[in-house]
Amino acid sequence: MSSHLSPTNVATFYHNQCDLYLHKSYHRPPSSSPRAQAVSPLAAAHYKRGLQWEAYLFRELQRRKQFIPLRKTHLYKPKEIRDALLDAAAQLRPRTSDEEEEDVRYIAYLSFQSPDFAREFAQHGSPPRSVAFGVAKPDLVKVSLGDQKDTIVWEIIDAKSSTAVKSSHNAQTGFYHLCLRSMFEDLPHLSGKKLVPSDKVSIWLPSRETDEAGIEDRVSLPSSMPTSLLLQPLSTFLFKKLPVILSKPRDQVEWYLNPSCQGCEFLDACRDKTRQEKRLGMIPNLSGSDARLLREVMDIVQRQNPDWNAVTDIEALDSLIKSPDMMRKLEVAYAPTTKKFKRIAGVHRFSGRGPELFSPLIDAALTQKPQLTRRRVFSFPRNEDVAIFISVIIDISKDPNASDGNIGAFCVSVVRLSTADHGTGRRKSAGAPMVMAHVTGHPKEFIRLVASLLVDIGKTPGARTQVYTYSLAERNAIVNHLIHAALSSPPYIPGESLATEGTSQGSFEESPGDIRLVLGALCDGAALLVTAYQPQLLSGVLLSFLSKKNTLSKAHLETCCRRLGLSGEGTTEVLRKRLEQEQWRLAEIGGRGIGAGVARREVGQLSKIVVLKKEVERLIALPVEGFIDLPSTAQVLLDPSDRRKSSIGQCEPDDVIFGAWMARGKKRFPGISGDEKPVIKWEDALKTRNRVMRAVLDNVRKRISDAGLSEQILLNEAKPIESGMLDLCESDKLRRLMYMTQFEVVLRLQELWQERLDGCPNAPILRYVRAEKRGTLWLQIFDVVSGVLEAPVEERPFYDWLLVPDDAGDGVPPEVHFDDLSLCSVVVRPNKFVRSRWDEQQPVVKQSITISNIVDVRMEKTPTEDGRSHKLCSQAVLETYYTGNHLTKGALYRISPRLVNFNFEKILLNLITMDFQHTVANNPVPFIDLIDNPEAFAQSPTFCGELEERKEKEIVRGLNELAKLGVEHASSLILKASQHRAAKRMMMKRLSVVWGPPGECTGKTYTLALSTLRILEVLGRRAPDQCPVILVTAMTHAAIEAIVGKIESLIGKYLAIKDRDSLWLNSVDLQRVRQGKTHPHPVLDNNKVYIFAGTTYQLYRFCEKAKLRANVVIIDEAGQLPLETAALVIRWLSSTGKLILAGDHEQLAPIFIGTYPEPEDLPLFGSVLDLLMGGRKRTGLAIAATEDESQHLYDAPVVQLLENFRLNEDLGTFVQIIYAKKFIPQKSQDDLGDLRLWLESNKSTNRIMEDARLFLLGLTEAMSNKKSHSFKLMRPQLPTSSGLEKQAQSQAVSLALIRVRVTKGSLSPYEEHVSAEAKLVAALVHWLREAFPEDSIFVACPHRIQRSAARQAILSPQEIETAERVAGDENVDNLAAELAAFHLSENGLRIDTVERLQGSEASFVIFPLSHTHQPSLSSHLGFLLSRRRLNVGISRAKNLCIVISSNQVLQPSLEVLTSEETRKGLEFLRAYEARSWSGDISLEI
Ligand code: SF4
Question: Domain DNA2/NAM7 helicase-like C-terminal, which positions (predicted)?
């Protein structure tokens, strides 16, 4: 056959993203068919696994009598296919109304020649038949009867044995869909029957829930992709881009060698060409986005230096890095791009070479010699006494989620100093002899063998031990294996002895003790949260608060000691001392000892299993093209003569080792293409692999040591094996929350450590000017030389910055040695406690670091460098903690953050205390009941019953009558229908969730406030007995103030109504708790009902001190409050107390640094609202019916408020598509007539201003049903709420969309795209501000860089300064003051990130979402298309929302569609597009 592409070629392109691959595949000579190529053992195993799954699936469909096999070798013509579909449909029974499932058939073994797609190419402006496609073989075509009479629906389904759907799968099924659709459209119409394509294509993956007998489990439902999202980008690619790619001369086709080239049939040729032409692929392991950025930088410099077009990629990059002038220009014009470029190319200053910059990656590529990167690492130890190397063969034919993991075989090799002398502090010389012992085995032996080994190593006290694997895949396979073993083993009984010691060799028994030991020694990370085992983090130092004086009673301390394996005897002080000693012991073992005298301290944290590949790549730039594996690493690092001398042997590629394992017992490889190679022994190959790992490890260390940099680069030594568990909580869920809380701290620390190791490249640089006295305080004044420093909102001195002289030496930055944990929970003030902690810091820290507090960042006029004029300069005003360091005038300093976390100790202590109350004192703990079983919690008894219900009816009747009589304020006390449902639920039941989308304006806060008072009113005189304490909290001060204000105002209204019993209000005492420790204790027997409102932290401290129990806990904005933080308040709920939550889980959730697995039963790692509303795997609590006003109306715990007071009807109708129930709008759209008048009478000569004016004018004309002549505005494709068909005077125009196109400069850097978008934003703001000076406007930016660009484009310098000042602090406690302060101008313009606008509203919202910069698009789309973020951005608007987007975002390529979250976001945005008035505007860059 002549040139063509097969559907598999198309799918493969979506894996490797390589134009050259398509070009070569299409234009290959007929003689070089891919069939002639040998298939590698790994590919063969993948293929076999696919066939097995397909056969399994087909058998199951046969068993269900749904399977229709066609002739396997026949190439079907379109008409034959249609007939086959009609025949299949003839077997189907129409579904009756009581049947849940439809009758379907699956046609298999269909083969056909792809159509010529003449129509499709023409539609996309391409020549007819510009690309030919080969034979298509969809695995299944599902046939079912449509809803419409005589329609037959067909759907393409492919069977894939992967664990997740990939974009290549979607491309393949989408292609088949297009084929059939095109073929059927060309056939003459049938009379009577109509073949209709399904609106989705599907991939049938093996279900993860496999069990031995459960066929139904294995073949669950296929995963589907809507064709509305899939076909448009696929068609654009196939019929528009592909002809262009294939028609290019080969030397103009874009490509670079990279890790996804592995397995490509053209690899050898591409590798040779890369080397010859010194192409970008000389830098190994470049990701697609990294390569695109490097190209972008090359384009910039080549535009400025046309001579550089003649040099190779690598030479151009080398010239750039060595040109200080060019680098400076780049940095000034494109700061973020340059920063990324430096990171990717590893560019840094090398002190031995003067001011010149240096990139080890480029040097290695040019010289073909390995180069030290000189990057410091904490994750690769300098030395160890015992090294354990583990090589694993991953069994590709198995599902990685199989109950016993997917390790096929393994080899563990142990290397130890032959005459170890551990624990004495003496270290062996580098040349000390080593002994290496190997164990190979079956996966079932893995845990027992490793446990036995660990026990053996443990017999040498203090032996510093480190475990290594080569690849991340091997590490993951080991961790997976251990997690599966932990999940399927019986629970570990504390004190259980290790089975290993008593088990005979050869037995496959794994005791829970073995599993626990190996898991503790080898695993860390968030994945462990699915098991009951959570190892200690940071050697237990995060639990050091246990030994401090706190609220733990003697009984609690005894329990602590026992659970840590210590004696529980002695006085409180003795127990505390014992805990303290244990923590010192653990810290010391873990290399985290504290105090000035400690011999060594771990910097950062070593992983339990070090992945050698990652570490070697970080430390050494290797001259290897495309991608790195162990053989290529050994090849370039190890001297062949040394290898021979040490008998290291030949390291085989993974593919060959896998083939040897597959062929075990045979003499030849069982390759599909009849491979003739003799079989090597997999055991020998793995042993050699471990030997090579060891040799590479030694080689890397030697290179670093020869450069005299060991201590500077490799900051840590290995430490003794630590397998301790975090067993303080008996409750499984509390233990997991404890681990997650600690893990978040560790992750934050890791971010700081990494930044510090790299010399704080992102730290702002300051120049010291002078000291200035303010009152009694001496303040230090600095000019901000580079970077952005934002002033805090509050004046509270946190002293959360480290100030260090910025001398560009090569030494270890002093910040690296700063011990954050010892000072993280204190505000640094010059007192005795802080002084003692400070004294324990390392000497280098005390000599170089000044702990500082940013008091202010201000704009000052400073003289220019030539002294002739003045310029505006940003100045930082700092308060410094006295350390004895002197600041030098004119010297440069860098300033970077330290870890400040005042709350995590409180959260941990609270979790432990609740566990002890539950398990030791056997007391009920409502929080544990809630997380164990929310349904049961919701059903448990509370106060209020039938009597109160009757009384409530009377109250409502009375208020209605008063309202009818026109009594002032009476109607304010009447709840709307859904609000009333929520109020009744709160009154009658223990758990209520008031779901109030979006923001507070569904009357959520009002409902909470009035319902609280209603409960007190129905209780009347009994309220002080039944409900004396109510706690009210929320994530932000603003939200707390809002609810307090609402309660106060409602009380005022109650009191204002005369002739109504308001005596019950005399007992209500509403107090704002600002300082929990000092807030006056309530006296609870004086006939009062106390409502205490405060942050979770202040209420926790207050209740702890006052020993309070709450009868009601109310949490507003609960969707933003992490569960473990909410526990600080829920802890104080009485055993019959009510819990009332309000919020919206469809808006932005709390931010966690880590990604946590969702447990099977409940989503624990999110907000308290997520727990109740459900997560990915589980639906949440029942939602109340809305229409039903019957007596059961409060039976369901979740009540959605339907009355929407913010969004007008049009906006509300759109936003509600993601909510369960429809909103009932309480307002209509405001007239935009003023805007039209203003716009008609003002024109602009600036093109972008004029475009914005005409677009807005078009909107106003559309609103008044006028035809617009000024702007080509597209009507909504779907009717707006007011109905376009209606001949109304005005129609809703609340949703608008601008599609921006970049006409010039589409290849310009990211910053220029952002800036062009910001100019359009500024133009829109300008017209809206002028026309509506009284109305509020939000510019809701997804990214900070957009916020900054929008501010630059919109605001005056004074306004920018104010904005920066108030936007600087992410601390939630500061938000109230921030919100109060945030009025940039009189008309309430706010330009901020979407996150920071959550909870507030504006008349107009401008939401910039265009991302026209193609190279960085794919890495941003997941963020931009988060449905929660889109929902928050759009639903801030009361009157008009203008989204600025682009085709790049609205019609992204297939890759982004594999993420379910992104897909949901895209559907939401596309729905917005369909309902909005839209127009195109071109941007010139
Ligand atoms: S080896 Fe890589 S660069 Fe070459 S054709 Fe294949 S995928 Fe493209």
Answer: 1250-1447
- In angstroms, the CA 539 to CA 589 distance is 8
More confident residue, 884 or 1055: 1055
Task: List all residues 6 or more positions away from 1089 whose beta carbon is below 8 Å from its beta carbon.
Answer: 1016, 1023, 1024, 1027, 1028, 1029, 1030, 1067, 1068, 1069
Q: Give this prediction's pTM.
A: 0.83
Distance from C-alpha of 554 to C-alpha of 281, rounded to nearest angstrom: 64
Q: For residue 268, how far is its CA from the centre of ligand 1 (angstroms)?
A: 9
Cβ neighbors of 1344 (< 8 A, separation 6 or more) are 1393
18 lines ligand 1 (CB under 6 A): yes
Calculate how far, in angstroms, residue 19's C-alpha sits from the geometric centre of ligand 1. 8
How much is the average pLDDT of 720-748? 89
- Per DSSP, the three-state class of 867 is coil
Ligand 1 pocket test, candidate residues 21, 32, 277, 627, most atoms within 8 A of CB: 21
Q: Which residue has the higher pLDDT, 968 or 560?
A: 560
**Could you tell me what percent of the chain has a pLDDT over 70?**
84
- What's the pLDDT score for residue 1251? 93
Task: Give the pair of three-digit tokens for residue 1274.
Answer: 């597209």
628 contacts: CB under 8 Å, gap ≥ 6: 284, 285, 613, 616, 617, 622
Q: Evaluate: CB of 280 within 6 angstroms of ligand 1.
A: no
CA of 362 to the centre of ligand 1 (A): 21
Neighbour-count burial of 926, counting CB atoms closer than 10 A to its CB (0-12 exposed, 13-18 middle, 19+ buried): buried
Pocket test for ligand 1, best of 266, 279, 282 (most atoms within 8 A of CB): 266
- Distance in angstroms (rounded) separating the CA atoms of residues 963 and 975: 12
CA-270 nearest atom, ligand 1: 4
| pLDDT tens string 270-281 | 999 999 999 999
pLDDT over 90 for what percent of the chain? 43
| pLDDT of amino acid 1298 | 96
Cβ atoms of 629 and 653 within 8 Å: the answer is: yes
User: Whole-angstrom Cα distance, residue 1366 to residue 1351?
Assistant: 13
Buried residues in 638-653 as b, exposed as e (16+ CB within 10 A): beeeebeeeebeebbb
Residue 1029: strand pairing partners = 1090
Has residue 506 got a pLDDT over 50? no
* Closest-lying ligand 1 atom to the alpha carbon of residue 16: 7
Tell how far the Cα of 1418 is from the centroid of ligand 1, in angstroms. 20
State the Cα–Cα distance between residues 890 and 770, nearest whole angstrom: 9
Q: Round the average pLDDT of the chain to a whole number and report it.
A: 84
